[in-house]
Amino acid sequence: MQKKDAFTLIELLVVTAIVALLMAILMPVLGKAEDQAHTIGCRSNLKQYGIGLRMYLDDNDHDFPDA
Q1: How confident is the model at residue 1 (pLDDT cuts 50, 70, 90)?
Q2: C-alpha torsion sign, points 15, 18, 24, 30
Q3: Among residues 27, 28, 62, 67, which one has the fewest Cβ atoms lying within 10 Å of its Cβ?
């Protein structure tokens, strides 16, 4: 008998199926993580706006800036 050095078609199909299954599992998870990162960034921006407004009000006798 000869030693096989290459993948058989069945082995290749099994590996492809496993990779496809893992991708199908990971894609929704990665999408949700991206949405959460966006939400965290928005919250941080709003917090910074609030801090900046509070600092402005403290420096200007609690008068809001002109529009």
Answers
A1: low
A2: negative
A3: 67
CA contacts within 13 A on the Cβ side of 8? 5
| Tokens describing residue 27 | 């894609």
Q: Work out the burial of residue 17: count CB atoms within 10 Å of its CB; fewer than 13 is exposed, 13-18 middle, 19 or more buried.
A: exposed
CA distances from 14 to 7, 22, 61 (A): 11, 12, 71
Q: Is the pTM of this model over 0.70?
A: no
pLDDT tens-digit map of 8-61: 999 999 999 999 999 999 999 888 999 999 999 999 999 999 999 999 999 999
